[in-house]
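Message: I would value a second opinion on how I read folds in token form. Give me a protein, with the fold worked out from its sequence. Write it directly below this note and I will take it from there.
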Amino acid sequence: MHSLNNPGSHGRMQRARARPLAAALLSIGLAWAGHATAQEPDTHDFGLSGDWGGVRSRLKDAGWTFDIQETVEAAANQSGGDARTSAAAGQFTLGATLDMDKFAGIQGGQLKMTITRRDGNSLSDAAGLQALQPLLAIHGRGNIWRLTQLFWEQDLAAGRAALKLGRVNPGADFAAFACDFQNLTFCGAQPGNLVGSYWQNSPVSQWGGRLKLHLNDGTAYLSAGAYRISQENVDDGFALAFDGQGVLYPVELGWSPKLGAAQRPGEYKLTAWYSTVEAEDVRTGATRQGRYGASALLKQQVTGRPDGPGLTLFLRLTQADQRTSRLDRQLTAGANWRGPLASRPNDVLALAVGVTHVNDRVRADAAGAQLEREYVAELDYRLKLRKSLTLMPNIQYVHRTGGRDLGDIIAGGLKVAMAF
């Protein structure tokens, strides 16, 4: 769900106001943790706020479903940067989906809207870390309200195809990857981590659409999309940005098999894109027409039952064009072990490692320091207290911060994800 998180600073007063908010939300999550049993399930299909006295169930029967979430990330660095400090950031999400079959008899149609509000401050800013990838992935793109999604999606050809049109973002449809980790290196669609100036992930949205064709009895698909690129989309203000500088055209081939006798699920994707936006050559400064790249995802459960405890491995690689991209390559790999404790089958122990590469054509920064690559590792324990409440203590380690010989970063963090 996230983009290259350009710091959304609004001064010390706003950052100071954000800290109590984040602290309060963390306290709420911890309070719920204290009252939850080891495996206490939710007693309904909704979030922590329940069925609203039966109103939610009646609305669902009429076609309306709601998605209300709060995610908070906090971290403190024990080494690296200019200071030892902490920071917290959060995102509030309010979404609604209307099943047009139930509401108006339009089979296979749905209308979806999502608005988000980010708040908080950046650990990279607060501690002077100078990392290529933020340690709080939820921070960035401004502490403002945004229209993150407003689209119509319609099944076509008896469900063999689907068309989506409206305010959308490419990271939801192409190279998509869950934002379960806290470091941006492992969060969201990877192209947005490298070329976020024109591949704009959530919470930013663009005018655009995607056509998806289901192949091979639904286990494979071919998608193509078009997204209007505008700098107005990332400004600190609400804008629908009808004008733009160009168009992003991604395509993707995906396969979601269930392998072996155990039918363990996998996910395999190849994504390529071309952008019509002009950009400066990173070495010569000359104007270059068009930007492009490719991305791959391999994800497979290798042990256990499909719906139970087991080990899932993943590998992601993205390459952006070297003419115009300062960060031109990112490689990540990791493992999610669901049910590491027999008494807690829904918890997840997760480890990820990654490297973000600075384009070889960018020989040095403004101070003359040689730039190469930044290495990141993150270890999480995702404590699933309820279906709608997860606490995730984590440790992050960053080597060659900023792609150069800066001090290594060690940071401890906590992520709280709540659905209401």
